[in-house]
Amino acid sequence: SASTQITNGAFTFTNFNIKPGFHEVSFSVSDASGNVDSNSVTYLVSLDIPTAQITSPTFTNLCASADIGEDPSDGLQFDVQIATTGVPINSINTLNVGTTNYPFQVNAQGEATTRVSIPQDGNYNLLASVVNQYGVQSNSGILAIAVDVHKPVFDITTFNNGDLVNILSSPIAALASNIENGKNATLVVNGSLVLPIQAIVDGTVTYSNVTLKSGSNTIKVSGSDACGNFGSDQISVTVDADPPNVAFVSPNSSSTPLGKTDDKDNNINNGFDYDVIVQVSNESVGQTVCLTVESGSPVCKNTGSDFKATFTTQFPEGLITLKATATDAASNS
Prior knowledge:
By secondary structure, this protein is an all-beta fold. 0% of the residues lie in helices and 50% in strands.
């Protein structure tokens, strides 16, 4: 306790040695007539200001690779690490992310890790607020981050996966989403990069006059967005540009004119019956081949294990035109 005199309606007590913590100060005054009045006030002495620093993430662009579980359907989930001083382990502190607050407590080393979930891509500010044992609050610096967890999506539209085609050169086009226009999209065909590299325009990338090979071809389009997220689409296409080789076995170009003895049932009274044999090479067994006699309707059969098809046909007398055609699965004919 101490006493002092009033000067100009005010009084001052000086040179008090006060420990940190809460203190109640009571004082009273009396006038010359002995009238007394008193009052009290409670105040806090805190010499240690708590501190907080967001130590992780250390980068400001959070892409798909930063997502725990890498599932963009639930947004971005990541851990925020905070280092503090002067913060007791039982105090409730807050990490603010956008409009969401995440409470956290520190360990004995003054550190904390908080799992954060951000549902949508965009720009966010992270701010940690901590309190010491006396309730004194302090804030960390603001960490501004940009979130983009959706990988680019490419869709090759020129062919479908597993297509069988009959061309050895074709433009290759693909739709591109979740990636900025102007970004490059690379095309790799059978392990080789196709040059020059093309940029995405209006959500589409197109390569012209791409060379394919006979047989199986692997086509892959890929690219990375501004955040570094990578996406691709890959398909396999089989090229068969060789048409079927169709030949008459019987009759053929060297055959002598057909006569009565060539009739299949040796009875020309019921018409001239003849087995026309057509062979198809350069194709698999079971290839469909069609025979047209003069201007009649085509008759079609599948070749057998010997790659031949036999048509029992009735011919009129005279010069006859036969036409055999085959169209393979790749539409070669």
